[in-house]
Design brief:
Elements lengths: L2 E9 L11 H26 L7 H4 L5 E8 L4 E9 L12 H17 L6 H9 L4 E10 L2 E8 L13 E13 L6 E6 L2 E6 L2 H9 L5 E8 L2 E9 L9 H17 L1
Antiparallel strand pairs: 1-3, 1-4, 2-3, 4-5, 6-7, 6-9, 7-8, 9-10
Helix pairs in contact: 1-3, 1-4
């Protein structure tokens, strides 16, 4: 039994007043909507197999999910479509109604994201990509004439996620590369988890060259995908750190001596 997805947009976005669907205005959004549906389906398949990762045709089922447009919505703009899974001849899928499960979770994500509740980044990207001027959105999921779910909302309040806060991280490994000025000074290290590149100063690059045959410890500040090197030293040595009192004395010892005279 086919699973139908109906979408209706209202407002002043390009084409809506003329009851037409503009590919220029909605093309990217529809692609992002399909991407979001497939990612949701991938999670559905993964959860269905629990601790046994799906392989072969089961693993590819989500990638074969599609939205096929039957006709445009006449009263405004949008479309009536069908969620399909392209199954090769002679192939079968497990007892899993992927179109229903993925479609239901798609509408759940649309409802949550429209109210500012973070649930699915792909669906958030879809909503952000929609053209300016949409005042009302409706989504229906139906099967065999029965409405499985209906979501309706006007102006969206998409969630603003906090910016990644910086934190200190420690790495152990071996130096496998450096970068010099006039390029970007950097140090590349191989750890048990893989390789990582740190932004560094010229002095730290020089230190890395001296330590290239030694297992090293790197202390860095991480923010997003950026790693800024703070300390680079032999891994067998205790971490070089100073107390607040020692740091103050080293900086102001001259003034303190003069005041003591």
């Amino acid at each position: 039994m086919s699973v139908e997805l109906k979408i209706k947009w209202e407002g002043t976005a390009p084409g809506l007043a003329e009851k037409r669907l503009s590919l220029s205005a909605f093309g990217e959004s529809l692609t992002l909507l399909l991407t979001g549906l497939r990612r949701i389906a991938t999670n559905v398949v993964g959860e269905a197999f629990e601790d046994r990762p799906p392989r072969g045709r089961f693993a590819n089922a989500a990638k074969r999910l599609d939205i096929e447009i039957k006709e445009l919505v006449k009263e405004s703009s949008g479309f009536d479509g069908i969620i399909t899974v392209a199954t090769p001849p002679g192939d079968t899928l497990p007892l899993l109604d992927l179109a229903v499960s993925a479609g239901t979770q798609l509408l759940d994500a649309l409802d949550s994201e429209s109210r500012g509740v973070a649930k699915n980044a792909s669906i958030r990207n879809y909503l952000r990509s929609l053209p300016i001027g949409i005042t009302q959105q409706n989504y229906w999921l139906r099967q065999n004439g029965t409405i499985l779910k209906h979501v309706s909302f006007g102006e969206t309040a998409l969630p603003d996620l906090p910016v990644d806060l910086p934190y200190v991280a420690e790495y152990f490994g071996n130096i496998i590369g450096v970068g010099f000025e006039p390029g970007r000074p950097e140090v590349k290290m191989k750890t048990e988890a893989g390789s990582v590149t740190f932004a560094a100063t010229s002095q730290q690059v020089d230190s890395a060259l001296l330590l290239r045959h030694t297992k090293v410890r790197a202390v860095t500040v991480v923010q997003g995908n950026s790693h800024r090197l703070i300390i680079l030293q032999d891994a067998d040595l205790p971490l070089n750190s100073s107390t607040r009192e020692a740091a103050i004395y080293e900086r102001w010892q001259g003034a303190l001596k003069r005041l003591a005279q």
